Amino acid sequence: MAPNASDDAPIIRGDDVVKEYETGGQLVRALKGVDFGIAPADFVAVVGPSGSGKSTLLNLLGLLDVPTRGDVRLRGTDVATLSDRERTNTRKDTIGFVFQSFYLIPTLTAVENVEMPRMLDRTPKRTRERATDLLERVGLGDRLDHYPDELSGGQKQRVAIARSLVNDPDILLADEPTGNLDRDTGDRILDLFDEFRAEEDVAVVTVTHDAYVADAADRVVNLIDGEVRPADEAAAEGST
Amino acid sequence: MRYLRRIAASFPTLVLARRNLSRASARSILAVAAVVIGVVAIGAIGVGGEAFKQDQLDAYEGFGGTATVNPVWNPNDEREGDRTFSESEIARMRQASGGATVLPVVESFESDVRTTDGEAIPMASVTSLEDPGEFYDAAAGEIPDNWRRTVVVGSRIANDNNVSVGDRLSVTVDGEFDRTFRVVAVLEPQGFAGPLRADQKVFVPLSQFDDREYDSAIVRVNPQTGSVDQVATSIESEFNAREHTVYVHPIQQQREAFERSFRTINQFLIGVGSISLLVAAVTIANTMLMSAIEREGEIGVFRAVGYPKTAVVRLLVAEATILGVVGAVVGVPIALGVGMVANQLLLGDPLSFTATGLRYVAIGAAFGVGTSLIAGLYPAWKAANKRPVEALD
Questions:
Q1: I need a labelling partner for A47 at 20 to 30 A (CA). Which of A71, A176, A219, A229 fits?
Q2: Is residue B68 part of a domain?
Q3: Domain identity same for B125 and B201
């Protein structure tokens, strides 16, 4: 799968990406030269033990951070050359985020939470249409005006997925999206990912501990100690 | 409702801010209370102080074109004891002032005033003036034109000792007289800044004194036709040619001096009031910091989904400002209410606000909103600059 993915013009690709940061006076090399490429409609699972650099990788893909060395290119543009403001705007247009603990705004209703990324755009009508449409597609058409504390965990995560898609992103980054959900609810989330990949051509990159999420992915990237381990990748594919 | 929602939708930051505040309502209410206290402190001190000033200045009314003349004691003066004016000096004063009224005053410092029950009124000071009606209006009774055996009483003496018109007071002045007088009039209150401090006086007729030594004099010209300053100058040149023997003090100047010292006191009080707004600012900064720390993850999400730093700053500053605006909106009516009570008590009309007094209320409100906004800046800036990576961990 991996070679195929990089054949299509990738949305985002990284070459020999190194990320170091300092913590408590110690230099930590979170990523030690990683290559990656994400093509449209890809479903990539990043697996690995905690501290392996998964979150760091996700932050780089999400333009929340820039690499120390090597380059990350989004449609050919080196993200390190973008200003903070430009990166924020690019992130808004390109990337959707789904978090393990949902991070819905408790004072906003379901539909307002979905609208939230576009609230400052001054296109309230179009935003409302898009948000309503997305909530209907995740099966929450009857919960538009419910507040997060009136929703179950699975429903919250579906609202969060709708929110991540409101700006028509190219990539959806999901950090342990099923981590707080039971198996059946988790299945529904994975189904939703498949639906949106098919309908919106959005690539999904998920960081997970969960082998069964990894099984659902097209491609698994095994990160250990800040490096991609092909052997483990083979093993992961073998178990499919 | 739909229309309202459309308006609200065009200020999404305010909608978000308001919703966020409603979630920590106890904290928000306390922060608002702090602003309210500050706004009320500044506004009420301002309006109340103005009412007090107005009340005091009223006492100067009727003293236009008036000056007090006091003798100055000189070390090489051969006469013994307190310097006083003699009958001839008063006559010279009349001459020098050219047509102005000169009213000699006797103040009896060694005097004793008692009610008919024998109760002493220690704060009363006995003053003798030819015609108190020249300066004062009677609140009760009538000030006689030509009086010999009655007294006129200041308002505080009357109020504090339940003295009213028709009552009798026994007045003793050492070496002069010891008699019982009927109270013929009680004066309107003059305020403590009033010239002669009439509120604490018992005025007795000049004819009661045999020995005519005057402690001071009051000179008065009709302000329409003459200038008291001119009269003051001519009296001074008549008496002070060789040495400084009299001191002429136009009451207008005393009024200005009072206004000056009042302004200083009021500014000090407003300063004290402002400190409570400073405390409010600290409270709001604390509220916003706590709220920013609590919502670190959420703010990280805002940043992650593409809100620029400035938008996050705007959101949190809007929250702080809303606290300030609500505080001002609640505080202004309270300040005005306190002001109305002060107006009623001091000036007798709850609506007698002065422009200056109202300006203090406006300043209080503006400061309330302004300090809240400034207090919100640091927490907002701090939250916005938190890297979303850390916020979302």
A1: A71
A2: no
A3: yes
CB contact under 8 A, A163 and B392: no
b/e burial code for range B57-73 (CB count within 10 A of at least 16 → b): bbbbebbbbbbbbebee
**For the packed helices B309-347 and B251-294, what is the interaxial angle rounded to 10 degrees?**
150
Residue B36 Cα distances to B279, B331, B369, angstroms: 11, 5, 10
**How far is the alpha carbon of A13 from chain B, nearest alpha carbon, in Å?**
20
Closest by Cβ to A119, choosing from B12, B22, B298: B12
Asked whether residue B158 falls in the same domain as residue B268, the answer is no
> Most B CBs within 10 Å: which of A90, A97, A126, as the mutation test of the B interface?
A97
pLDDT tens-place values along chain B, 393 residues long? 567 666 666 678 888 888 888 877 888 899 899 999 999 999 999 898 888 888 878 777 767 778 888 888 776 656 555 678 888 888 888 888 887 888 888 888 788 888 888 888 888 888 888 778 877 888 888 888 778 888 999 888 888 888 888 888 889 888 788 888 999 999 888 766 566 778 888 998 888 887 778 888 888 887 777 788 888 888 888 888 877 888 888 888 888 888 898 889 888 988 888 888 888 888 888 888 888 888 888 888 898 888 999 999 999 999 999 999 999 999 999 999 999 999 888 888 888 888 888 999 999 999 899 999 999 999 999 888 887 766 666
Residue B117, Cβ density class (10 Å: 0-12 exposed, 13-18 middle, ≥19 buried): exposed
My answer on whether B52 and B79 are in the same domain is no
- Asked if A64 and B9 come within 8 Å (Cβ–Cβ), the reply is no
Q: How far is B328 from chain A (nearest CA, A)?
A: 25
Structure tokens at B59: 């006492």
**Domain co-membership, B131 together with B280:** no
Q: Do residues B107 and B173 share a domain? A: yes
Domain, as residue range, for B312: 2-59+257-391
**Residue A238 C-alpha, separation from nearest chain B C-alpha, in angstroms:** 32
B292 belongs to a structural domain: yes
Asked if B89 and B214 sit in the same domain, the reply is yes
Residues B98 and B23 in one domain: no
Give how far B3 is from chain A: nearest CA, Å. 13
Note down the domain range covering A47: 2-238
Q: Token pair 């209080």 is at which residue?
A: B364
**Mutation to test the B interface, candidates A119, A122, A168, most B Cβ within 10 Å:** A119
The enclosing domain of A140 has a CATH number of 3.40.50.300
User: For residue B250, is it within any domain?
Assistant: no
Interface test with A, best of B301, B302, B316 (most A CBs within 10 A): B301
C-alpha B109, offset from chain centre: 29
Q: Kindly write down the DSSP assignment for every residue of A187-209, as one continuous string.
A: HHHHHHHHHHHHHH--EEEEEES
Of A179, B9, B69, B337, the C-alpha closest to A160 is A179
B356 and B240 in one domain?
A: no
Give the chain A residue whose CA is nearest to the CA of B392. Answer: A99
Number of compact structural domains in chain A: 1
Query: Do B316 and B383 meet the contact criterion of CB atoms below 8 Å apart?
Result: yes
Q: Say whether pTM exceeds 0.90.
A: no
Give contacts of A83 with chain B, Cβ < 8 Å: none
